[in-house]
């Protein structure tokens, strides 16, 4: 019996040893840490200076730690500077902010959209992570009467992830533009199309807050505006858990194009959601290919009695396709550094 017990313990130990390296080695190491401190106690005073220091063609994870403070600057992560981990001292302590709006930019032929130019923070690189930091566009912080597109963050890289981050603006807060993205435990605040773009993203346990003022009366805003153009295009916003709350009235989404795709899964919805739920917008009259759906949601705003007749009723297999992490993840999330 004792011999059998020893053999069993050795077998268990071997199994654990075999498993442990596989788990630990999958997580990528951070090659170095750069510190940003607005008071001068770090390697750089500004976030952009730290980003510029990362070499072009970088292939090793670099942590840029931004110490508590408010950093008033526009920041761009260029396409050639991948593998950056941007880390704050908590979204309530560390923010990057700027006051800009689309109307301040003139668009010439072939130029970038003025809306995109308004972004406080822009990610063009693949393999980017942000943790525990806030991105703000302060243009519409107080006066929401003269509204304008004012982007807090524009996310255009593939394999981009945001953990415990916050995004604040009013119109077009978060441009989830292109690529596969993971937003986990984030706070996103806005009033009109405040999560928009063509991205393929999962919003996991996020808090979505409407800041529509009473002066707008019964004119609803829209939480999302997804822009998928064709059936062959990737893309779709999936909200898993979390909540939608705030002030004013909101559509869950409006279709920017005829293949717009948005799914709410087990989300708690407050009474700010209008009964019809969705707006056809640019897909008006062509809603057959729009995939707008709700599954297992709760709260007063989840009452589907008055929903538009073209809202999709998904099968279990279709739901699984959207809510499983494989929708965005082929292994890249598990390989991220912490």
TrEMBL record:
It holds the Pfam family Pectinesterase. SUPFAM superfamilies: Pectin lyase-like (SSF51126). Keywords: Aspartyl esterase, Glycoprotein, Hydrolase, Signal. Its EC number is 3.1.1.11. GO terms for biological process: cell wall modification; pectin catabolic process. One of its GO terms (molecular function) is pectinesterase activity. It is an enzyme of class 3 (hydrolase). Pathway: Glycan metabolism; pectin degradation; 2-dehydro-3-deoxy-D-gluconate from pectin: step 1/5. It catalyses: [(1->4)-alpha-D-galacturonosyl methyl ester](n) + n H2O = [(1->4)-alpha-D-galacturonosyl](n) + n methanol + n H(+). Transmembrane segments: none annotated. InterPro entries: Pectin_lyas_fold (IPR012334), Pectin_lyase_fold/virulence (IPR011050), Pectinesterase_cat (IPR000070). Gene3D superfamilies: Single-stranded right-handed beta-helix, Pectin lyase-like (2.160.20.10). The keyword Membrane does not apply. Residues 34-329 form the Pectinesterase catalytic domain. The keyword Lipid metabolism does not apply. Residues 1-26 form the signal peptide. Belongs to the pectinesterase family. Acts in the modification of cell walls via demethylesterification of cell wall pectin. This is pectinesterase. It comes from Triticum aestivum.
């Amino acid at each position: 019996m004792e011999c059998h017990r020893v053999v069993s313990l050795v077998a268990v130990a071997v199994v654990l040893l075999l498993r442990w390296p596989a788990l630990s080695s999958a997580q990528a190491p951070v090659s170095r840490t750069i510190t940003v401190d607005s008071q001068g106690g770090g390697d750089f005073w500004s976030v952009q200076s730290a980003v510029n220091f990362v070499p072009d063609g970088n292939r090793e994870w670099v942590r840029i730690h931004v110490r508590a403070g408010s950093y008033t600057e526009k920041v761009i992560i260029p396409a050639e500077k991948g593998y950056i981990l941007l880390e704050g001292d908590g979204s309530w302590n560390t923010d990057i902010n700027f006051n800009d709006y689309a109307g301040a930019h003139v668009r010439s032929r072939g130029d970038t959209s003025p809306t995109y130019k308004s972004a406080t923070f822009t990610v063009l690189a693949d393999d980017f992570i942000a943790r525990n930091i806030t991105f703000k566009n302060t243009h519409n912080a107080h006066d929401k009467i003269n509204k304008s597109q004012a982007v807090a963050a524009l996310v255009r890289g593939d394999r981009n992830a945001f953990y415990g981050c916050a995004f604040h603006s009013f119109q077009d807060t978060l441009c989830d533009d292109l690529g596969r993205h993971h937003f986990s435990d984030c706070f996103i605040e806005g009033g009109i199309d405040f999560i928009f773009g063509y991205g393929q993203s999962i919003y996991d346990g996020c808090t979505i807050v409407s800041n529509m003022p009473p002066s707008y009366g019964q004119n609803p805003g829209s939480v999302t505006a997804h822009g998928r153009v064709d059936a062959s295009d990737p893309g779709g916003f999936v909200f898993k858990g979390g909540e939608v709350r705030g002030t004013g009235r909101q559509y869950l989404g409006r279709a920017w194009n005829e293949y717009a795709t948005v799914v709410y899964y087990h989300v708690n919805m407050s009474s700010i959601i209008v009964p019809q739920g969705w707006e056809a917008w640019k897909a008006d009259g062509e809603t057959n290919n729009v995939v707008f759906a709700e599954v297992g949601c709760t709260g007063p705003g989840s009452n589907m009695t008055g929903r538009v007749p073209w809202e999709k009723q998904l099968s279990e297999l279709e739901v699984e396709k959207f809510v499983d992490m494989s929708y965005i993840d082929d292994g890249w999330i598990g390989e991220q550094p912490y």
